Fold this protein.
Amino acid sequence: MRAVLLVLCVTVPLSGEVLDFPALWSRDYPVASPNAVENPRISDACEARARALATLGVLSHVDADGARVGQQMLARGLEPGEWGEILGAGPDWPSIFQGWKASATHRELLEDTRWAQVGWGSSRRGTQLVVVVRFWRP
C-alpha cells in the first residue's frame, strides 16, 4: 500500500482577479511544473470535488464516504500511486496560490519535481472560489 501525502487547507481574504493554475505554477515553479503532465481525468475529478466542497461550504481531504484522495481516484479508475492534494478557498486563483506559497506543506507539493501528472478544478460559491489540485506519481 502506498502512502498518500495530504496537506492542510488555506483560506484567504477577498480581493484580486482570477488566473489559471498552470500559468501561476509554471511562473513560480518553473523547475517542477514541466515535469507533470495534465491528466484530464484527474482534472475532471478535481472539478467534481471542488463542486462538492463548494456546495458543502467546507474544505476537507476526506469525502462523505470517508475516502481520501487515493481511494477517490482508484474508484474513478485511475492507477494506484502516490497522490498529493491541495485545497484552497478564496476570492480568486492568485490569492489562493499566494496562500499556498506561504505554507511550507503546500509549497513542498508545488516544488516537487517527481510528480508525473497533475489535475485541477474549481467551483465558485458566492464570492468564494474553491480550488482542488491533485498530483500523482507511480
